[in-house]
Amino acid sequence: MSTHTLLPTSPAVTAAPRSSRRWLALSVLALAQFLVVLDASIVNIALPVLGDQLHMDTAALAWVITAYVLAFGGLLLLGGRLADRYGHRRVFLVGVAGFVGASALAGLSVSSGMLLTARSLQGASAALLAPAALALLTHLFPDAGERTKALGVWGGVAGIGSAAGVLLGGVLTAALGWQSVFFVNVPIGVLVLVAIPFLVTRDAVRAQGKLDVAGAATITGALVAAVGALSAVQQVGFVHPLTIGLGIAAVVLGVAFVLVERRTSDALVPLSVFRNRNLSVGNLVMVLVGAAMVALFFALSVFMQAVLGYDALTTGLTQLPLAGALVVIAGLAPTVIGRIGAKATLVGSLVTLAAGLVWLAAAPADAVFLTQILGPTILIGVGMGGAFVTTTQLSVDDVDGGEAGLAGGLVNTSQQVGGALGLAVLSTIAAVRTDALVHAGVATAPAMAGGFSWLFLGAAAVTLVAAGVATTARRGH
User: Fold this and answer.
1) Do 31 and 130 touch, CB atoms closer than 8 A?
2) CATH number at residue 407
3) I want to staple 247 with a disulfide (CB 3.0 to 4.6 A). Which of 103, 229, 362, 467 is the partner?
4) Do 242 and 391 belong together in one domain?
C-alpha cells in the first residue's frame, strides 16, 4: 500500500483542515453523505402516493428521480473544483445548507413544478456537498492506514444509504405521508451544519487564476446530456429522437471539453490527473460497480414486490441482511487491505459480488426468501462492501491535496454515470427478455423472473469486467 499522504504539496495550498476529534468529524461527514445517497432511492416508494396528490402521471413521476440525478451527476466535477478553489469546508457547508433548504421546499410542494424545482436544487446542492466531504476526509486522515479505516466507515455508511432508502421510504410514507421522505433531511442536515464548524478547522482558499468557465460549461453540459440520454432510454427507448439528440449532444460537448482543457492553463479537470494509474483504474471500476449496484437495487425491489408479492415494508426489511453484510465488510476491509493490499482485496470483492449475482439469477418466480434469496443477497453485500471501500481508496490515492475535491468529484461522477448507464442498459435487457417470454406464452410472474434473471447475470458480467480492470492497478496496492 502506498505511504503517500494527501496533504497539499503545492505552495498554492497551505494548511489542510485538521481536527482533534477527527473520528467524530468523520461521523458527521458520513451522515451528510448518507443523506445524499439515501435521497436517490428513498423517494421511489413514495412516488405513487405523491403522484395521486400532486396529479402527476407516470412520465412526470419519472422526472422526480431524473431531476435529482441530472443536477447531481452533471454538476459534480464543477462542485469538486469549486471546493478545491474556495475551500472544502466552506463549499461543503454551502452544499449542506442548500440541501436542507431544497428538502424543505420539496416537502412543502403543492405542485409538480415546485417539486421538480426542489429536486433539481437538491441535486445541485449534493454536487457541492459530496466531493467536498470526501476531500475533507482525505485531509483529516493523511496517514494511509487511518485513511483506509476512515474510507471503510465512509463506504459502510454509503452502502446503508443505498439499501435503507426502500425501507425508510416505505415506513415514512405509510406513517407520515410522502412529505416526510423530504422533511427527514432537515433536522439531520441542520445537525451537520451546526457540528462541522466545531469539528473541522477552516481550510485554505486557493482563489488564484481564472475559473475555467468554458471547461465548466462543456463538461456540465456533457454530463447532463449523457445522464439525460441514459434516463430517456427507460422512458422513451433507445431510438427516440430525444435519446439520440441527447446522446449526440453529450459526445459533442465531451469532445469540446477535452479540447478546452488541453488549451487552458487553469483547467477545471487537468488531463494530467489521469496519468495517476490508480485514479484512472479506480474511476473506471466505479463506473462498472455503479452500473451493477444501481441496477441491482432497482431490480431487487421490483422483483420482491411485483414477482414475489411482498409489500413495500417487507421488501425493505428483506434488504437489511444485504445492508448488514455490506456494513460489516466495509468495517473489516481496512484490515484486509493492510494484509493483502487494495488490489487483491478489490479483485476478490468483485468476484464475490459476481458470484452472488449469479446465484441470485437462479431465483424462480416462487422463490422462498430464506432458502433462495437470503444467501445470495448476503454474498452480494459482502462483495459490495469490500468493492466500494477499495474502489474509493484507489480513486483518491496519491492525489495532491489541491486536487482532493476534484478526485472526490470524479469518483462520485463515475458512480452516478455508471448507475444511470447500468440501469438503462440492464433494465432494457430485462424488459426485452420478459416480453419475449410473455409472447412465448409464459405467465407474467415467471416471465418477469426470467427477465430479472438476465439483468442479474448482466450485472455479474459487468462486475467481472470490473475485476479484470482492477488487476491493472499499480503494484503495491
Assistant:
1) no
2) 1.20.1250.20
3) 229
4) no
Spell out the long-range contacts of 248-251 with Cβ–Cβ below 8 A and sequence spacing 24 or more: 249/221, 249/222, 249/225, 250/222, 250/223, 250/225, 250/226
Under DSSP, the state recorded for 179 is T
Domain edge (last residue) among 267, 290, 312: 267
Query: What are residue 8's phi and psi, to 5 degrees?
Result: -60, 140
pLDDT band at residue 24 using 50, 70 and 90 as cut-offs: confident
CB neighbours (10 Å) of residue 329?
25
**Contact assessment for residue 381 and residue 156, using Cβ atoms and an 8 Å cutoff:** no
Same domain, yes or no, for 255 and 302? no
- Over residues 156-188, the pLDDT tens digits come to 777 677 667 767 777 777 778 888 889 989 999
Could you tell me which residues come within 8 angstroms of residue 21 by beta carbon, excluding any fewer than 6 positions away? 199
Cell of 285: 471500476
How far is 96 from 79, CA to CA, in rounded Å? 13
Tell me: do 173 and 224 sit in the same domain: no
Question: Is residue 115 in a domain?
Answer: yes
CA distances from 44 to 64, 165, 178, 191 (A): 9, 8, 10, 25
Tens-digit pLDDT profile for residues 451-461: 999 999 999 99
- Return phi, psi of residue 286, to 5°: -65, -35
Question: Whole-angstrom Cα distance, residue 31 to residue 27?
Answer: 6
